[in-house]
Known about the structure:
The structure is a single chain. The chain is an alpha+beta fold. The protein has 5 helices and 3 strands; from the N terminus they run H-E-H-H-E-E-H-H. The chain has helices at residues 11-20, 27-37, 46-58, 78-97, 102-107, and strands at 25-26, 62-68, 71-76. Strands 1-3-2 form a 3-stranded antiparallel β-sheet. A hairpin with a 2-residue loop joins strand 2 and strand 3 (71-76).
Amino acid sequence: MPKKKLELLTESMFYLLMAFGQGEMCGIDAAAWIEKKTGGRMRIGPATLYTILAKFLEEHYLEETDVSGRKRTYRLTAKGAQAYRDEVNRLTLCLRDAGIDWKKEESE
């Protein structure tokens, strides 16, 4: 059985969906948001960024909202938001399987 496209998200894909969940922005702004959010742990270079943006557009996870010269602005679609929620749920189950309850630890 062939694997579905984007069935599992890479870390870069996950963080990009998280970034676009904050609102409309261009790819460079999303990469900067990710770097700030992760304290510099996660950096997405231009080649990775534009490869993922193309995949997300093809899969309708993002839609283009504005083009101004070379700058393109995107927003998360309902399908992209669902893919993000699905990945959060998958990762939560992985943490639970590892014996880590991050929600409990967060409240302590």
